[in-house]
Amino acid sequence: MDTISFKFSHRHIHGEKTLEKTHSHPCHEFVYYVRGRGTGKIADASYSYAAGTWVYIPSGKKHSEFHETETEVFFFAFESTGLEVGIREGLYE
């Protein structure tokens, strides 16, 4: 059976000049940048984020962030079984 199941959501404020070390999740993740500015990396691809942008990180992909300014994020994660998500990983405006 094809399913999508919601796993978690969270709002977080990262301090200025902080690093979210490289990690991965066993689920897909969307991160919306409410405010702030910085850079991130998904696998070998780098991106710069600002307020109003978001990223899609596929299940199992290693990713990290550096927060140049205080950064507020809202993120949520989901699992999919038997379904292609059909979204390209990376930054969206």
Structure, explained:
This protein is mainly beta and 93 residues long. The protein has no helices and nine strands. It has strands at residues 3-14, 18-23, 28-35, 37-42, 45-50, 54-57, 63-67, 71-81, 90-92. It has a five-stranded antiparallel sheet with strand order 1-8-3-6-9, with no helix packed on it. It is globular and about 45 Å long. The termini are far apart.
- Give the radius of gyration: 13 Å
General shape: globular
- Sequence of secondary-structure elements: EEEEEEEEE
- Distance between the amino and carboxyl termini: 33 Å
Number of continuous helical runs: 0
Residue runs with pLDDT of under 50 for 5 or more positions: none
> Overall pLDDT, averaged?
93
Structural class: mainly beta
- Can you count the beta strands? 9
Q: Which strands sit side by side, in order, in the main sheet?
A: 1-8-3-6-9
The fraction of residues in strands falls at over 45%
- How would a crystallographer describe the biggest sheet? 5 strands, antiparallel
* Helix proportion: under 10%
Oligomer kind: single chain
Question: What can be said about this structure in brief?
Answer:
The protein is an all-beta fold. It is built from no helices and 9 strands.
